[in-house]
Hints:
- By secondary structure, this protein is α/β, with parallel strands linked by helices.
- It has a single domain (2-162), classed as Purple Acid Phosphatase, chain A, domain 2, CATH 3.60.21.
- It has helices at 16-22, 37-46, 59-62, 92-101; strands at 2-7, 27-30, 48-51, 68-73, 76-81, 85-86, 89-90, 105-107, 114-119, 124-129, 140-149, 152-162.
- A five-stranded mixed β-sheet has the order 3-2-1-11-12, covered by helices on one side.
- It is globular, with a radius of gyration of 14 Å.
Amino acid sequence: MIRIGIISDTHGRLLPKITEFLSGLDEIWHAGDIGSAEVIIALRRVAALRAVYGNIDGNDVRILCPEALVFQVENLKVLMTHIGGYPGRYHPQSKKLIELEKPGLFVCGHSHILKVIYDHKHSLLHINPGAAGSYGLHQSITAVRLKIDGKDMKDLEVLDIPR
């Protein structure tokens, strides 16, 4: 079993409450719009990090992170990218990757809206952790953590801090 924290859209600022929420986990996944290499360095001090770059990220982040990641955790295939959309309205590039890779978990960011939706058509769980930073129009600062045991995703928790 592995304990995962999922964040997105920090936009260059890692808030102490986010770091606290992610402490003690096995891995942190950042779904883009990281904002700076300093955020990457800070997150790596908390736990092992997997991250993709987002549309606001400059070359300092893009040389450290790919646009999309496909990886295996326990017995679960994961696809992570920044601009993903959501079930029934996936971004065209994300839809192609979903159909090609057939992940059990799809993680994206960009919208600043927390969503956890099961996609019956593609047999996957879609997670957008919302926005973990203070920049943007979102009303809440959010993050997600969960456990992966084999192919099972369980004990999902949400951090929701009013801005």
